[in-house]
Amino acid sequence: MSITRVPYGGLSRKLVVAIDVGTTFSGVSYCVLDPGEIPEIRGVTRFPAQEGVGGSLKIPTIIYYDRSGDVKAAGAEATREGIALQAEEEQWVKAEWFKVWLRPKSTHPPPELHTIPPLPLNKTVVEVFGDFLRYIFECTKTYIQDTHSTGHTLWDNFGDEIYFVLTHPNGYEGPQQASMRAAAVCGGLVPDDAAAERRVSLVTEGEASLHYCIQSGLTAEAMKDGKGVMVVDCGGGTIDLSSYAQNGEAFEEIAPAECLYSGSIFVTSRARVFFEKLLKNTRFEEDVELIAERFDKRTKPSFRRQEDDYWIQFAAMREKDEQLGIRAGQLRVKGTDVASFFEPSITEIVYTIDDQNLSAETPIKSVFIVGGFAASDWLFSKVKEKLEELDIDVSRPDSQVNKAVAHGAVSYYLDHRVKTRVSKHTFGVRCGAPFDPYDPEHIERESTKQKSASGVWYIPGAFQIILPRKTPVAESKEFSRSLVRSSTHRGSLRTVSSQILCYRGEEGTPKWIDTEPDKYTVMCTITAQLDELVKTLEPQVTINDEGKEETYYMVEYKTGLLFGLTEFKASVIWEEDVGGPS
Question: Coiled coil: which residue ranges (predicted)?
Fold first, then answer.
């Protein structure tokens, strides 16, 4: 099945720009939506300092700053001949791999994290991300103006009708998505937060890659007889795994999406650690950075056979040291050592694919590998070899595996084929459990019990589940739970707040936050003003321990979650009158 689009039915022209900021390389695709015209997705294939390479779809995710924090070079301009010397002379600071610092704090940090360059000049990751978005959007503007007939007039006609789709790893959650929207504002894509909510959409790299595979017609054969497919987006920082099955014209996620911090930069990081140990306390110790860079640019992408030796040129021809394997300024690296740098990533990919296949509701028989890291013949061949032992077919879509995410992100905006997603974790709220003197867990916590204004004894710190882990969720389905709050003072109920908690442990039905406190993180806090409702509250009466009447007020409301979209949304729902919820 491929996508057949109908003419755009909008009343005015608009532009959709999808920006894929990757850890090592970034790309842009776009679509001009003209009323009555069939939408066509195009890629930006010309960037500054890269015009002579015949149309590249990606630019390096690199920025140089001067000591004042101003951007001096970015993208391909940051890798042009002589730039390193100029940067050294003018004391510029280089920012690369900065996307890794946006990762959720709840993810297990990769062992090689210490090798990731720190953020420069006390800048935040949002500021650096915003600077790069500004640069790549300016490149897009120039490309459209120069490529389309009457391009400058075309651009001016868009006005505020420019909509953005930003892609992110499967593992990003609310805080990271909020940071990306903030970066869009910081980078001048949109003027403020309100515009960011309206004009900036977010989609996981896994789902964007699926849309690319659909529009390329790759899923038709793979999904015959109701079989599932998995898309594995192998990028510079992350490996994103997403599994789907087809239901009519729509697609459904059939297993929780996964995100591994085991992309291509970590192959280079393992190599750097190897070179550091090999050359420690030798006269070549200061050359480690250059050797690692040459390995990253030349040895890593060309590696195919572990039986061969590989030579990395890093010094003058006269340099040699037979004990270290250095001859004519080249360092010899055994193919088996290079293979060992890849091995943790390969093992983790295969293990996670197998694990996701076992947990999927539909058998997965086909895996599509996309992304820049997928261009590695060694990675692809070893993953394919191991998965074929599990009776899983593995393929790469085409030679342009690095355009899948940006193109697919535009397709996501236009076609929106995924209608059901699977919750990765358990979500809920902190609450008080009415005290049960016969419940062993309550007896154990009896010293913590408290009395509400309504006279009910309860145990604080209970966890009320709103959305269980591994639950298939349709986009339009809302999950909610009722909550009650009481107080002796009516005014204190005017504002109610609820923290949405995410439980990341393995317990199927977690009950108490104190049993695994490190497994709970705050997804967001939602606050509601109940002034009109509070005005209508009637006083209620309870009898205290001394037999006297006490007056209290009580409100009931629901905390709701809308999980089925690519973004997590929460709400507070209450009823002010018989006319229904407000």
Answer: none
Across the range 44-66, mean pLDDT stands at 81
Query: What is the CB-side half-sphere exposure of residue 522 using CA atoms within 13 A?
Result: 7
Handedness of CA 347, 521, 476, 209 (dihedral sign): negative
**Between vectors from CA 558 to CA 557 and to CA 559, what angle results, nearest 5°?**
130
pLDDT in tens, 208-232: 999 988 887 777 777 777 789 999 9
Looking at residues 545-566, what average pLDDT do you find? Answer: 81
pLDDT at position 566 is 62
pLDDT at 401: 57
DSSP assignment of 247-274, as one string?
ETTEEEE-S--EEES-SHHHHHHHHHHH
> How sure is the predictor about 161, in pLDDT bands with cuts at 50, 70 and 90?
very high
Beta-strand relationship, 93-96 and 62-65: antiparallel
Q: pTM score, two decimals?
A: 0.86
Asked if 450 and 457 touch (Cβ cutoff 8 Å), the reply is: yes
Alpha-carbon Rg for the chain, nearest whole angstrom, is 28
Q: At what angle do helices 125-147 and 151-158 cross, to 10 degrees?
A: 130
Residue with structure tokens 């058998």?
363
Domain around 557: 426-581
Residues 571 and 438 in one domain: yes
What is the β-pairing status of strands 200-204 and 239-247?
unpaired
Distance between CA atoms of residues 268 and 509, nearest Å: 41
Of the residues 164, 183, 205, the one at which a domain ends: 205
Q: Give me the amino acid identity at 374.
A: A
The count of C-alpha atoms lying within 13 angstroms of the C-alpha of 443, restricted to the half-sphere facing its C-beta, is 4
Cβ burial of 246 (10 Å; 0-12, 13-18, 19+) is buried
Query: How many contiguous H segments (helices) and E segments (strands) does the chain have?
Result: 15, 31
Q: Name the burial class of residue 260, with classes exposed (0-12), middle (13-18) and buried (19+) by CB atoms within 10 angstroms of its CB.
A: buried
Residues sharing a CB contact under 8 Å with residue 255, sequence separation 6 or more, in sequence order: 243, 356, 357, 359, 360, 361, 422, 470
For residue 55, pLDDT over 50 is answered with no
- How many structural domains is the chain composed of? 4
34 and 179 part of one domain: yes
Residue 543 CB neighbours (<10 A): 10
Q: Is-contact 552 564, C-beta < 8 A? A: no
Asked if 466 and 390 count as a contact pair (C-beta separation under 8 A), the reply is no
pLDDT interval class at 98 (50, 70, 90) = very high
Asked whether residue 500 falls in the same domain as residue 564, the answer is yes
Q: Which of 372, 378, 379 is nearest to 400 (CA)?
A: 372
**Strand 239-247 to strand 228-234: parallel, antiparallel, or no bridges (unpaired)?**
antiparallel
- Give the CA distances from residue 131 to residues 75, 125, 479, in Å, rounded to whole numbers and listed in that order: 11, 10, 38
Arithmetic mean of pLDDT over the chain: 89
Q: Which two tokens stand for residue 503?
A: 């439980």
Tell which wins on pLDDT, 167 or 416.
167
Q: Is residue 304 part of a domain?
A: yes
3-class secondary-structure state, position 201 = strand
